[in-house]
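Risk register update: the risk of archive-format incompatibility is retired. Evidence:
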Amino acid sequence: MSFFMSGNEIENYAIYTLLLIYIIHVVIMKMNHTYEVALKKNVANALEVDELNRLANEDITHFHYNLEARTPPIEVLNKI
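Archived output:
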């Protein structure tokens, strides 16, 4: 799709091709539950990965703490 949308002008055949792809996508979404679920799972996984990366960039210690563990976390051992 981005191939058609590059540049300052969009040709007529590109518009019709993108419209056809969109219509096929909508029909498949309505008719096929498996396609819909797979598409939503992929989007959700991508968003989850982005959010976890954001959290890791902000404060990596969040991932080092395991509240279920009986051993102290890495940060506590470093302070000792």
